[in-house]
Amino acid sequence: MKQPINIFWFRRDLRLDDNRGFYEALKSDHPVLPIFIFDSEILESLPKDDARVTFIYNTLQTMRKTLQDEHSSSIAIYHGTPESVFKKLVESYEINTVFTNRDYEPYAIKRDKDIETFLEENNTAFNTYKDQVIFEENEVVKNDGDPYRVYTPFMKTWKAAFKTIDLEIYYTNSYLDNLVENTRLPNLELSDLGFEKSTQEITDYDVTPTLIQEYEAKRNFPAKDATSRLGPHLRFGTVSIRKMVKKAIAEKNEIFWQELIWREFFMQILWHFPHTLTKSFKPKYDTIKWRNNETEFKAWCQGKTGYPLVDAGMRELNETGFMHNRVRMLVGSFLCKHLLIDWRWGEAYFAEKLHDYEMASNIGNWQWVAGSGVDAAPYFRIFNPTTQIEKFDKDLKYISKWVPEFQELTYTSQIVDHKEARERCLKVYKEAVS
Ligand code: FAD
């Protein structure tokens, strides 16, 4: 007879410590088989040298090594659709319960529902836990149960709710001996996935006390490189949000803490309003007559608009997979307002390029810059790409780094005139939304 086991399914929580679902699995009655599935449907849509796939792959190999060397175990790595992998697993093992952490994106919600149904049909329980956020789903809503659509009251209620909880850290170390003993669980090479090692690397995060203390003063200046670079680590779970919030509070920096709350704000917006994945939160904005000029879109993607701060941002993105938040706001506004290109085009380009791509934050922020989303500034506030330089890159350090030719005759001429583009935008937006 097969020995009963439990499974822990790693997804966006690639760490061994302070991992809620992993902790619950390890404390259960049966030995735990940790697994990871490279979802073939998701991989199909990605470039073959995607830095995020390399990052996930390398992180898993490091985790496997720790479990092999220190706990005579490992992580089983599969490639396929989750359904096909679970079909094989239920044939090979007697599985009592599958443990995992909740994922709130529309695709993930449907995937998990399907897996839960399949497991139930095979007499296996599916236990899910909150790990990715401090507050999920309906936990921070108005008194009448309605979701917040504006950030500041959401943030205040979030903070009030936070005072009432004891933020537990889930120390797994004392339970790691409850893993199945097998150091030779299935593994894969990147090439087995049809991928190659990316030349771009996801940078390590460095959230020092000094960074948090100086965050408010420096965060708006792209040349200072004074933000945390936490994005990919929160996305793939190599950092625990609980530990990060504790750190922010220890340094008494409300602004850094509030950025982490923005992340949860947009996550609950996408969860409550999944239609915003493809549609404007404010329906009238879907009647805007976008110009969608493909040549201009290409120039924007390549950082060749003739507006140096916009071009610097796009070149930084293309070369490194990162762009400073201040510049993300400007390039986004420039695309939607100066060029009148649909926010969905920009959203898709960022989704392909950003190492810290996070569906809820990307959609939420793109709709914010387009004016179509929650809590957006009125549409007639249009960023001026020249005065933004005076405010945020006065000594031209950031621009010189990414667009060294910007003061030379060889530099591209401006693809639109600011004043004309501004007036055109106001007219088109007004026709649609007022
Ligand atoms: P820090 O400034 O150090 O902030 C720490 C963390 O707080 C971030 O890693 C992030 O998790 C969170 N955070 C900060 N600002 C925001 C914000 N405005 N919205 C949501 N979370 C925030 N952020 C993403 O994580 N993924 C995206 O795909 C994404 N797309 C964006 C698209 C546009 C058009 C704009 C204007 C912003 C986008 N942002 C996105 C938000 C923000 O620009 C990045 O989180 C930030 O620049 C990442 O750098 P950092 O990790 O050094 O951030």
From TrEMBL:
<protein>
    <submittedName>
        <fullName>Deoxyribodipyrimidine photo-lyase</fullName>
    </submittedName>
</protein>
<feature type="binding site">
    <location>
        <position position="215"/>
    </location>
    <ligand>
        <name>FAD</name>
    </ligand>
</feature>
<dbReference type="GO" id="GO:0003904">
    <property type="term" value="F:deoxyribodipyrimidine photo-lyase activity"/>
</dbReference>
<dbReference type="Pfam" id="PF00875">
    <property type="entry name" value="DNA_photolyase"/>
</dbReference>
<dbReference type="InterPro" id="IPR005101">
    <property type="entry name" value="Cryptochr/Photolyase_FAD-bd"/>
</dbReference>
<dbReference type="InterPro" id="IPR018394">
    <property type="entry name" value="DNA_photolyase_1_CS_C"/>
</dbReference>
<feature type="site" description="Electron transfer via tryptophanyl radical">
    <location>
        <position position="290"/>
    </location>
</feature>
<dbReference type="InterPro" id="IPR002081">
    <property type="entry name" value="Cryptochrome/DNA_photolyase_1"/>
</dbReference>
<dbReference type="GO" id="GO:0071949">
    <property type="term" value="F:FAD binding"/>
</dbReference>
<dbReference type="GO" id="GO:0003677">
    <property type="term" value="F:DNA binding"/>
</dbReference>
<keyword id="KW-0157">Chromophore</keyword>
<dbReference type="GO" id="GO:0009416">
    <property type="term" value="P:response to light stimulus"/>
</dbReference>
<dbReference type="InterPro" id="IPR036134">
    <property type="entry name" value="Crypto/Photolyase_FAD-like_sf"/>
</dbReference>
<dbReference type="Pfam" id="PF03441">
    <property type="entry name" value="FAD_binding_7"/>
</dbReference>
<feature type="domain" description="Photolyase/cryptochrome alpha/beta">
    <location>
        <begin position="4"/>
        <end position="134"/>
    </location>
</feature>
<dbReference type="InterPro" id="IPR036155">
    <property type="entry name" value="Crypto/Photolyase_N_sf"/>
</dbReference>
<feature type="binding site">
    <location>
        <position position="256"/>
    </location>
    <ligand>
        <name>FAD</name>
    </ligand>
</feature>
<comment type="similarity">
    <text>Belongs to the DNA photolyase family.</text>
</comment>
<dbReference type="GO" id="GO:0006139">
    <property type="term" value="P:nucleobase-containing compound metabolic process"/>
</dbReference>
<dbReference type="InterPro" id="IPR006050">
    <property type="entry name" value="DNA_photolyase_N"/>
</dbReference>
<dbReference type="GO" id="GO:0006950">
    <property type="term" value="P:response to stress"/>
</dbReference>
<keyword id="KW-0285">Flavoprotein</keyword>
<keyword id="KW-0274">FAD</keyword>
<feature type="site" description="Electron transfer via tryptophanyl radical">
    <location>
        <position position="366"/>
    </location>
</feature>
<dbReference type="InterPro" id="IPR014729">
    <property type="entry name" value="Rossmann-like_a/b/a_fold"/>
</dbReference>
<feature type="site" description="Electron transfer via tryptophanyl radical">
    <location>
        <position position="343"/>
    </location>
</feature>
<keyword id="KW-0456">Lyase</keyword>
<feature type="binding site">
    <location>
        <begin position="259"/>
        <end position="266"/>
    </location>
    <ligand>
        <name>FAD</name>
    </ligand>
</feature>
